């Protein structure tokens, strides 16, 4: 899956994600996906801005997480996913992966 496809999927699911007053950034080698949940509606873009929580991983790992092939806790413990900032923000975004 490409960065563009991930961005489009997140945009399609954005209306399901509640406003939590925070921002999240997914950082991949191919670029970033910025998820702004600070307003009344989610805003998804490819801007590389500061975020409350940054998840650093590969597109391949994200795809495995989304398909259930990879356990999120094992991915973090194994170094395939790194989380910087407010980890609580990442935990609240399960609906993006549905």
Layout of helices and strands, plus pairs?
Layout: H1 3-13, E1 22-28, E2 31-37, E3 43-45, E4 53-56, H2 59-67, H3 72-77, E5 82-85, H4 87-91
Parallel strand pairs: 1-4
Antiparallel strand pairs: 1-2, 2-3, 4-5
Descriptive overview:
By secondary structure, the chain is of the alpha+beta class. The chain is built from four helices and five strands, in the order αββββααβα. The chain has helices at residues 3-13, 59-67, 72-77, 87-91, and strands at 22-28, 31-37, 43-45, 53-56, 82-85. A five-stranded mixed sheet has the order 3-2-1-4-5.
At a glance:
By secondary structure, this protein is an alpha+beta fold. Helices cover 32% and strands 26% of the residues. It has helices at 3-13, 59-67, 72-77, 87-91, and strands at residues 22-28, 31-37, 43-45, 53-56, 82-85.
Key phrases:
4 helices, alpha+beta, globular, 98 residues, 32% helix, 26% strand, 5 strands, 5-stranded mixed β-sheet
- Roughly how much helix do the residues carry, as a percent range? 25-40%
Structural class determined from secondary elements: alpha+beta
Could you tell me the radius of gyration in angstroms?
12 Å
Q: List the strand order in the largest sheet.
A: 3-2-1-4-5
**For the report, how would you describe the main beta sheet?**
5 strands, mixed
Order of helices and strands: HEEEEHHEH
The end-to-end span amounts to 16 Å
The chain-level mean pLDDT equals 89
What are the segments in which pLDDT stays under 50 over at least 5 consecutive residues?
none
Number of strands: 5
General shape: globular
State which percent range the strand residues make up. Answer: 25-35%
The total count of helices amounts to 4
């Amino acid at each position: 899956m490409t960065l563009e496809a991930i961005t489009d999927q997140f945009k399609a699911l954005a209306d399901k994600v509640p406003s939590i007053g925070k921002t999240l950034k997914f950082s991949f080698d191919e670029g970033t996906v910025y998820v702004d949940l600070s307003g009344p509606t989610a805003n998804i873009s490819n801007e590389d801005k500061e975020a409350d929580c940054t998840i650093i991983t590969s597109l391949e790992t994200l795809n495995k997480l989304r398909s259930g092939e990879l356990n999120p806790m094992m991915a973090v413990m194994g170094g395939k996913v790194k989380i910087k900032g407010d980890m609580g923000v990442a935990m609240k975004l399960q609906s993006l992966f549905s």
